[in-house]
Write a structure and sequence with these properties.
The protein is of the alpha/beta class and about 525 residues long. It has 15 helices and 20 strands. The mean pLDDT is about 95. Bound molecules: alpha-D-glucopyranose (GLC) and calcium ion (CA).
Length: about 525
């Protein structure tokens, strides 16, 4: 177990993200819940993780699956009670697992008491908690678009004003310029720290300092002032781990966010690598194949750029992203090999790895009839692109490849009905491949992806080079093999990953004889489809 009183403990940690709605149902209502998570803690202990990033479980009308919070201090009855939460925190801690709460500080639900008050009149004390601009209900203040489609401005006729929302209409943006609001948020965070929460994931944190009239959303001028105040006022304990979601982060900004003096956050989720298979200037729906050297140079920039001056988070999956094995791997014949290869590629790097539920068993994307998609973003995209005249097939292909619902199908526990996720009727379709892909099967197979991830985690704990080593690309322009070297004074780690379904010749550099991890039973001269190896010297 890691000693979590030591500052920076999270540099040696591995986290696991739980999307509660889809993890484990305990009472047969078809929706995952807190007691369900409790019942699976020992599975996570076996995997070897140190913390759980829990997607939102607070009170919410669920317009955006909990990212629209109506009460930050209450647990949604759908997930259980405050007592269930306290038990989960306590039981997890006993097993060396910290619970990291998802903090949605950029916006609330329209049903939050603050917004209900704010809408009543311009001189209501909560009015200024949100972002308002006078208007006539005909022409919005400007042409800004909301992330989930439509205008970013919604009119409230009683006030003669528009409110600003970067996401859905049901998610009004909070006004961080207001110091009273900021203090309310800090006190809410302290409430959770007192409950035993050991860290936070900060939803779209780079968008809090927006200046909508200047069309600024990410990286607003006061962003780092706000973050420093937040850190001082709310994250004062040494041991808390904080990770900000920052779609707009580049290396330079990330050195501010994750400055070693702890003045802002521990680390951020940046998304540059995630956007490499999208058309330049397009949206995530505009697909393009991944060109491996792009990925290499992107990762090199982050690995070298933050070494000693900041800290990386390492991830390829979360509840907003399609399954990586279906994206950069092969979810057909080479599913197992490619899932292990992708894990190797990522876990050899410097930073804190985040595993998303089901990644450790190689869960895949799903294709659904249009009416079964649940995600607000997917549904809005479909309607928008239909209206704009995109061909049906093209829209569907974008959705199959990129919909957030790919990651939100229920966790596949076993080959029984509903994959063991629920005894009732699941809130969302279980991927029909659950008889083949499930946790029970993985646990009974020593060669499974699960045990491979277990090894990746334990290697990281046993060799300092994973945490501290420098990073150098090997054969940088090779379009098929991603290889790199990590070095400290004592150790060198070589990671070799074939990103293709072909056999590829590759010369292992001299001095590397000790293969500590491999995804094929033996070693040959060439690399087989999606072959991955780690060597230590
Ligand atoms: C973040 C969340 C996503 C949510 C959005 C709005 O990107 O990860 O799920 O829809 O913020 O809160
Ligand atoms: Ca339930």
């Amino acid at each position: 177990m890691l000693d979590k009183s030591k500052s920076g403990w999270w540099k040696s940690a591995v986290f696991y993200q739980i999307y509660p709605k889809s993890f484990q149902d305990s009472n047969g209502d078809g929706i995952g819940d807190l007691p369900g998570i409790l019942s699976r803690l020992d599975y996570l202990v076996k995997l070897g993780i140190d913390g759980i990033w829990l997607s939102p479980v607070c009170q919410s009308p669920q317009a955006d699956n909990g990212y629209d919070i109506s009460d930050y201090r209450g647990i949604s009855p759908m997930f259980g009670t405050m007592e269930d939460m306290e038990i989960l925190i306590r039981e997890a801690k006993k097993r060396g697992i910290s619970i990291i709460l998802d903090l949605v500080l950029n916006h609330t639900s329209e049903e939050h008491f603050w917004f209900q008050e704010a809408k009543k009149s311009r001189d209501n004390p909560y009015h200024d908690y949100y972002v308002w601009v006078d208007g006539d209900g005909v022409t919005p203040p400007n042409d800004m678009r909301a992330c989930f489609g439509g205008s970013a401005w919604t009119y409230v006729p009683e006030l003669g004003q528009y409110y600003f929302h970067q996401f859905a209409v049901q998610q009004p943006d909070l006004n961080w310029e207001n110091p009273v609001l900021r203090r309310e948020l800090y006190s809410m965070i302290r409430f959770w720290v007192e409950k035993g929460i050991e860290g936070f994931r900060l939803d779209v944190i780079d968008q809090i300092a927006k200046v909508p009239m200047d069309k600024i959303t990410a990286n607003g001028p006061r962003l780092h002032d706000f973050l420093q105040e937040l850190s001082r006022e709310a994250f004062c304990e040494e041991g808390l781990v904080t990770v900000g979601e920052a779609w707009g982060a580049d290396v330079e900004r990330a050195t501010l966010y994750s400055a070693p003096d702890g003045s802002e956050l521990s680390m951020v989720f940046q998304f540059q690598h995630i956007g490499l298979d999208q058309q330049t200037g397009g949206e995530k729906w505009d697909l393009k194949p991944l060109y491996l050297p792009d990925l290499k140079h992107c990762m090199e920039g982050w690995q070298q750029g933050l070494n000693g001056t900041g800290w990386n988070s390492l991830f390829m999956n979360n509840h907003d992203l399609p399954r990586i094995v279906s994206r950069w791997g092969n979810d057909g014949v080479y599913r197992v090999e490619s899932a292990k290869m992708l894990g190797t590629f990522l876990h050899g790097m410097q930073g804190t790895p985040y595993i998303y539920q089901g990644e450790e068993i190689g869960m895949t994307n799903i294709r659904l009839p249009m009416e079964e998609y649940e995600d607000i973003e997917t549904r809005n995209l479909y309607a928008e692109r239909k209206a704009a005249g995109f061909p049906e097939e093209e829209i569907r292909n974008s959705i199959y490849a990129r919909s957030r619902d790919n990651a939100r199908t229920p966790m596949q526990w076993n080959d029984k009905e509903n994959a063991g996720f629920t005894t009732g009727s699941p809130w969302f379709r279980v991927n029909p491949n659950y008889k083949e892909i499930n946790a029970e099967k993985a646990l009974n197979d020593q060669n499974s992806i699960f045990y491979y991830y277990q090894k990746l985690i334990s290697l990281r704990k046993n060799h300092r080079v994973f945490r501290d080593g420098s990073f150098t690309l090997v054969d940088a322009e090779n379009e098929k093999v991603f290889a790199y070297l990590r070095e400290t004074d004592e150790e060198a780690l070589l990671v070799v990953c074939n990103f293709t379904g072909e056999e590829v010749p590759f010369a292992i550099p001299d001095g590397f004889a000790d293969c500590i991890l491999q995804n094929y039973p033996d070693l040959t001269e060439t690399l087989r489809p999606y072959e991955a190896r780690m060597y230590l010297r």
